[in-house]
Structures are given as structure tokens and as C-alpha cells.
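assembly run, all chains below
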Amino acid sequence: MKKGKKIFALALMVFLVSAALTGCGSNTKSNTASKTSDTLIYAQGAEPRGLDPAMVDDGESAKVMINIYEGLLKYNKDSTKVEPSLAKSWEVSPDGLTYTFHLQEGVKFQDGTDFNADAVKFNIDRQLPPQATKDMAYASFVYGSVKNVEVVDKNTVKINLTAPSTPFLNNLAMAMSAPIVSPKALQDNKNNVNQAPVGTGPYKFVKWAKDENIVLVRNDQYWGTKALTQNVIFKFIKDNSARVVALNNGEADMIDGIDATVVKQITDAGNKIFQAPGMNINYMAYNTSKKPFNDSKLRVAISQAINVPEMVKSLYQGYAEPATSILPTFMEGYDKSVSQVAYDPKASAETLKAAGLTSVHVITYTNPRPYNSANGQALAEAIQGYFSKVGITATIDSYDWTTYKAKVKAGDYDIAFYGWVGDNGDPDNFMYLLGVNDPGLNIALYKNAEFNKLIAKGVATPAGAERNAIYTQLEKIAAADAAWLPISHAQTLAAYRPNVDGFYFHMTGVTPFAGVSKK
Amino acid sequence: MLKYIIKRILMLIPVLLGVSIIVFLIMRVFSPDPAPIVLGQHATQQAVETWRQANGLNDPIILQYFHFITGAVTGDMGTSYYTKAPVLQEILSRFPATIELALVAIILAAIFGILIGVISAVKKNSIFDNAGMFIALIGVSMPIFWLGILLIILFSGTLHWLPSSGRINPMLQPAGVTGFYLIDSLIAGDMEAFADALQHLVLPAVALAMYSMAIIARMSRSSMLETLQQDYIRTARAKGVSEGRVIRKHALRNGLIPIVTVIGLQLGSLLGGAVLTETVFSWPGIGAYTVTCILKSDFPVVQGVVLLIATVFVLVNLVVDVIYAFLDPRIKFSKKEG
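ok done. output:
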């Protein structure tokens, strides 16, 4: 009897293993072949924080949400200009205080409820005081200038502002805060749809296996052009080299978070690289609140010591553009006549010697950032090399990113490294960093009343040549005062398999899949 | 026996209290402020203060601990700062992945470890012995993440035999009854999903099993060598018992006690989450998740996970002690205690 049991157990084992390796193996292939052609698999480096646009602030969430939700407006595919989406047209009152949106008709949320003016009001109201909670990371950024929302009729909604704000239209196309969520879903889920998103977009949420994947399926009731592919799967693969193997092995159709070091490995396997300008800035900041860098002459002298184009080429191997201004080149207000302090080690050494400056305290971060794929330490060390040529000894203290942010806020440094990833594609979103009174954002602690006045004017001026001129002027002031040394704009790099068609990564960091298909 | 088990379970209380105090203090003292991480790049100083106040982080630390421990006793571990999901739900959704991987790895490690150890001991100083101990040496010395990456490059990248990451093809994922995909797919009768889950398990399980297998092999060898020197082995042989029977019934059973201890300890640490293996293979378990949460200063989650792991560790050790009694009838806990 005992022996019989043993033999049975052994036989079962053999059966299971052989079934796994042979019979079912071939079955798997034929089945997945029919399934995979209608499934796009996108591998990203981290799990989204959640899928409620009001509750999250991370790019990983945005990539998923952009496929589920839509906002009143959306960005043009190749720029950050806004286009109609759930709003088919809009008017701005002459005083810039009232925005009237005419909504698409007959649009339904994925739960079958109607999209209308009430839904828009519901979504904005939950992010305005008194309903807004402190952890709605983008509520005050997107809706900070909103006074109230009025429902004019079923398909018309009026948003009143407290002060004119030109970036407001761009905000409404963002993947954070601005997307419209089904009010019913919000009511059913205690005002938090992080785990149960319902929007009007081309894909519907199916399931989320924590730390593994999120599955979306085509919304066949979608009001616009329906998505080309049936299923989209977002896989989370933390390790960079494992993500590349997954692409080359066919376990993923598209991946992101790659850097220059793996490009050859990817192209050698027959896969393609997606490369586009990125909406970010990688910069070095001087602590302008204390000696020695409260003196702009010394800031200029230090900036003169650094050969930015040479350094950017060697650190990022052609996958970042040397920055000539704070604004990315594709943005409204960018002016190519603006340039930063030019490389001049001789002049630099003379000024520094005359001032008697021989050492600086530099702090930096140890990990790669979206705007700096090489990591802060490599950047700081490259700059240390340039400093030594002009007689300056740099002491570098490096910290992991979270500790580093606290150190930056504490303000105990002469020079620090930082960067910014744009939110809404508006020039104010970059230039305001030098005007705001917050050590976590304006890390140079730069104060200039004239600059701040122009920032306020830029926000209130309607889009156009007059407004762009204001930002060009701001750029010129920033370059002359040299509180920052803009270093580079990192390019967006992603990779995809050769049979994938229509894949693109928008400069705002999102990946809409409705137009992507697989041969 | 029952009295002994109850006593051991009661011992959990001081252990967990101690562990909770240590993890609580370490997180509060050494971790960066969670507020800026939760609130994002636009957070103002004022928003940070309001958030800290609302989450009780400005209270005296004793009071914070009191709130945490009273919640934990009633089963409320709080909500994750970062994702706002209940901590218990976040942990439970990931724990089955860790258990499944740990069990498969420990089974592999135990089978091959004991096999190598016993053969090495019986054929002492032979080529088997040397080869076995060489494998064991590689197992204890090779960094697990490196082994993992090598396995991925060879079996996924080059040969394309096995998947490199994840637990299962998402389109085949069985409905969650137990959370163990091997069992769930069998319950659903979906052999395709079962095969797929098994294929996904191979590489991480082998990578994870390697170190434990090496330890078990070395322990088995020395334990067997010692047992084979005993008088009762000589007696058994003198009585004419066949060599195979001597090794299986007389030597191995007596030599197993230290081996079971080692297996128990290894299983305990594997259940705590194999951080490196889980990261390299994108295995959605508790280990890699905990590291992410530590980096995000997500205090409630880290506290919850550490308490869970401590509990599991203590329970696994209890099970090991109970197994002793079955292996060696001379060990009787009730008498010893009484």
C-alpha cells in the first residue's frame, strides 16, 4: 500500500513535468501565437503608484492612465500644443477669466454612464478646496487658478479663474489631475479609483496583479477612432538588463528606461530604438544665498570653467543635447539667440584667483535620473575635473536621491545638481523654478524682483509672440545672472520590436497605444 | 506536545514586540521624511507640514508607536503612505508569490543538497565527493544576482528556452483561489497555464535554490560522516544489514536532525523574501517590494512586512522542532518541559 502510494506520487510528478515540457509546450505556442498578435506588451521599470489621476504623481502611472482616460484637451502628437479631446471647442473671455468648453456629445464612460458637463464639474470640484486633500499631488498645480465650475447645459461647462492663467489650457491636457474619471466609479470607490479606474479612453482596465502587470482591453464602445490592438499589457521589470533581455526574447514588444549602454545590444538583436527630444533640463545650481556664490561674477567664472558640450557628449554619448537655454528647444518661448556662459578657462582662472576662491563644497545624488542617465555622481566628478584645471578643489558629498532632496532643502552647499521634468509643456513650468520661494524647487535660492515680475506677466499674457518674447527675456536674465548652469536635455529613449507599428513616446512621458499595432 | 506548541506560540508575543520596536525606531530615525516623497515635486513646505501633522508624524515617538501597536493588535496595519492601499492587502497580494518560489526552491535545494551530501559522505574522498563539494563551494560563493543574470542571458537571451521575468503569461493568469499559480491553474484544470507558470518558476527557483542547496549539501555530508562512525552502524553492518538499508534507515534518519534544522532556517529566510532573486527576475514577491518601500520611507508597509516575516520565521522554526520528534522518537517535548 505504502509502495503503491509512492509509485502513484512519482507517476504524477513525471506526468506533470512531461506535460509541462512537451504536450502543453507545443499547445502554448499555437495558442499564444493567435493571442499575441492582438496583444501589445510594454515593459516598464517600476509599478505605477495608482490609477486615479488625482491621487498620483509618477510617470509610470501616467503611461497606463493615458490609455484609460481622456481630458478636455490633449497634446499634439509631436509637440505640447493643445488639441480638442473631450471638449470639441472652447472660448476664452477677453479678460482671460472665463473658459467655456463645448463638450463632445454622446460620449460614455467605460461603466456605461454618460460623460457630460456634470461629470467635468464633479472631477474638478473634488480637487478644489474644500474637497481636495493634501495628498492630491497635482490638484493645486492644475486647478490652482480655478475659482469655480458652472454647468451651463448638458454639453457646456464654464470654468472661472481667480486670475488670468495662460498655462491653464496646457494643464487640461496633462495626464495627472486633468483626466475625467467616471463620477459613479468615484462614488463607488470612496473617492479613490487607484485600483478601479474608469474613464472614457480607448482602453478599459481589466486587472492589476501587484508588482507583475496591468492588463487593459480595447474599449469597443469608444466614441472616437477605436484602438487597433485588442489587449495592452504593462509589465513591470525592475532590472534594466532583464528588461532588455525580455525585449530581445520576445517577452515584451516595447520597453522604456534604457540608456546608451544597451542600444547596441538591442539593435544587434534586430530591434528598433525610439529616440526623441525630451521635456526636461539637467542643471547645476549655485547657492546664491551665501558666500561665495551670492556674487554673480564668481558664478559666471565657475561656469566659464566647464566645457558643457564636450562633457555632455562624453557623459551621454549622443543621447542628450547640450542645453543652450533652460527651455527645451521645441517649447513655445524658446529662442535660439539665447546662450549660456561660454567656455573660457583662462578668464575663469583669472577671476577666481583674483577673488581668492580655491575650494567649493558640492553635493550630488548617486542614482540616475530621467534627465541624467549617467547619475549625479558621474556628472559631479566630470565637473570636478574641469574645476581642477582652474585651480578649484571640489569636495563632493553624494547621497541617495531621497536623502539628497533633504540635503538640498537644508541648503548646506555651494553647488548642487538637480533637474526638472516638465509637466504641462508651458514655458512657465520651467522658468518659474527660478522665481518661486521654496528651497525644494528654487534650489539656487535665486531672488530677483524684476525676474518675478516678468514671470507673473508671462502667466497672464495670452499665448502668442508677445508672451514668447517675455520668456526669451527671462532666459536672457537667467543666463546673465548664471544662478544655474543648464547642462543638458536628455532625450527620450525607448525600444520596440520590428513588427510593432506606430509606437511613439510623447515628450510629456506618456505612451498612447490606440494607434499601435503588431504585424 | 500540545502544551509545548502553545508555549512556543505564546513566545511569539515578546519576539514580535521586540521586532516591532526595533523596526519602528530604525525607520523613524534613519529614513528620510516620507512627506516629500508622497507629495511629489510640487510639494510646498506648508503642504509637507500639513501632511506630517495629518499622518501623526509630528507626535511624540512613543505615542506614534502606541498608535501603531494598538492598530496592529486589532489587525489594522494602516495604509501605505505611497499607494494609499491598506497595508495588509498590499502584503497579502504579494506573499503567495514569495511562498511559491521559496517552497519550490527549498524542495529543489533539499533534494539535491541531501543527495549530494549523502553520496559525498558515503563515497568519501572519491571523485563524487570532490565534485559534489566543488558544486557546493560554487553555490555558497557565487553572488545570487550574478548567477540570476547568467541564467537569464543563457536560457532566455541566447537559447530562448525559458522566460526571463514574471510569474506567468498575463493572458493565462488563473483566477486567484490560493494565489499560488501552480495550484490555481491545477484547480482550474488549465494545463497550459500550469506549464507556463512552471516555466516561469524554473530560473528563479534554480538561482534561489543554489545557495541553500550548497549549505544543505555541506551539512548533510558532515552529519552523515559523523553518524557513519557510530557504533550502531557498525553493529548493523555486523548483523548483515544491506549497505543501502544501513545508509537509509540507520545513518540518514539519525543524521537528518541537523539537516532539518538547516533546511528550516533556510526556508525561514527564503520566505522573508529573496530580495535579489525577486529583483533580477521581476518576481512579484514580498522581498523586492519591501526594498522599494524602504526607499520610499513607506513606514506602515515596512513595519507590516517585518512583523509578518518575523512571525513566519518563528513558526517555521516551531514546525522544524516538531519534526524532530517524528524523526527521533527519543525527543519528547512534553516530558522535557514537564
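The mean pLDDT of chain B is 87.

Residues 191-228 of chain B form the longest helix (38 residues).

not gonna interpret more than that til we talk
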